[in-house]
Structure formats: structure tokens, C-alpha cells
Amino acid sequence: EVQLVESGGGLVKPGGSLRLSCAASGLTFSDAWMSWVRQAPGKGLEWIGLIKTKTDGEATDFAAPVKGRFTISRDDSKNMVYLQMNSLKIEDTAVYYCTRDSPMDVWGKGTTVTVSS
Amino acid sequence: EIVLTQSPGTLSLSPGERATLSCRASQSVTGSYLAWYQQKPGQAPRLLIYAASSRATGIPDRFSGSGSGTDFTLTISRLESEDFAVYYCQQYDRSPTTFGQGTRLEIK
Questions:
Q1: A39-62 pLDDT, tens digit each
Q2: Which residues of A fall within a CB distance of 8 Å from B44?
Q3: I need a labelling partner for B18 at 20 to 30 A (CA). Which of A49, A83, B63, B68 fits?
Q4: CB B2 within 8 A of CB B25
């Protein structure tokens, strides 16, 4: 069964940092571009970043609201992708989903990040 | 960036009826790199349609997608109770990939 499982969410103060993890199984992970998408409470879907495969240089791309604050990395030996979030803002509060890209045919169940003082 | 505008915002229909959801792009989506997702409360989105008209694995044939350029449509031929949800379109033609704001399909 193809599966993505996110972890690492929680409550963090504004200005703080958090690292989310996504464990993949049942797919050829090393061949997959991986994205992170978030959904603020009661809002729609927002793509925040992507990491390409090793073949594609593990190039990353980010949405404007998180560029310079968030980074994405991957460990193909562990079938893991990571989202490092720094300088967190209240507006980063959301459910964060890991997905296989493109199109986004496999999604995790999400992990909740709450930024609040 | 390409802005996707979905209409209507909310669609109220009864089971058995036909649903037509629209997604309009601010610029042409080349290669028809347009997808549709279904999201139910408390769940992750699920891919329904990719490349504008191809059904994803396991998606019933009552779901169909059409369109090209700037105008795309998701049609659900005969609504079943499990189809009432929020639907999003997404373009993956150009970075940044973008989503529409969603159409809520509710039971009338």
C-alpha cells in the first residue's frame, strides 16, 4: 500500500522553529518529486514547497510566503522528506500535508502546526 | 502566478442530479496540466482527475473532467451521497503550482 505519514507537528511560539517529517512507503521514493501543502483552519489548499529527485539535483522551490524561512530536504535511504520551518508566524498555523508531485496523487493524513504565544 | 477561480462557491444539489463545477485560469494552462481534488471534512484531499480529463486510479466513471486553455470543468454525472464534499482545481503547468479556492458541494 502506498502511504505517506507526516509527523512533528505541535504548538510553537512565533519566531520559533519546527521540523516536520514525512515517511513514505509502497512507492519508489527516489523517483518521486515531493511537495508540502498546507491548509489553514477553514481555508483552502496552499502549496508551500517542492523537492525534486536526486537525478534532478534535489532542487527545491518554495512559495513566496515561506521563501527564506522554510527548507525541504530528503533522505532517499530512509524514504523520508523533511520540512524545516524557521521564523514561524501566526499565519503559518495549518495542517501540513506531504504529497507526491505532480499531480499530487498520494497524500498523507497531515500534521497540525499551531503558532501561538 | 496563475490564479484559478472556481465557481460557484457553493453548489446545492440532490443525490442523483448532475453537478458541473468550473475552474477558470488567469493565463492559459498549457499541456492541460490541470487536476481536480475532492476533500471531505477531516480528511486529506484525494486526486480525482489529472491532465484535465484523465481519471485517477479507482475513481468512478461518474467523475469526468474537460476543458483546455483557461476554462476547465469537473462533471459528476449522477451524485451519490459520498460525493458531497469540497472540490479544488490545481494547475501544475507553471511554478508556483496553484489551487482554486474550492467549490463546496452540499446536499439540497
A1: 999 999 999 999 999 999 999 999
A2: 97, 107-110
A3: B68
A4: yes
B56 vs A50, A105, A110: nearest CB: A105
Q: Which of B99, B101, B104 to mutate to test the interface with A (most CBs of A within 10 A)?
A: B99
- Measured between alpha carbons, how far is B10 from B21 in angstroms, rounded to an integer? 10
CB contact under 8 A, A110 and B98: no
Tell me which chain A residues have a C-beta less than 8 angstroms from the C-beta of B101: 44
For residue A64, what is its C-alpha cell? 513566496
B32 pLDDT band, cuts 50/70/90, is: confident
Q: Where are the beta strands (DSSP E) in chain B?
A: 4-7, 10-13, 19-29, 34-39, 46-50, 54-55, 63-76, 86-91, 98-99, 103-107
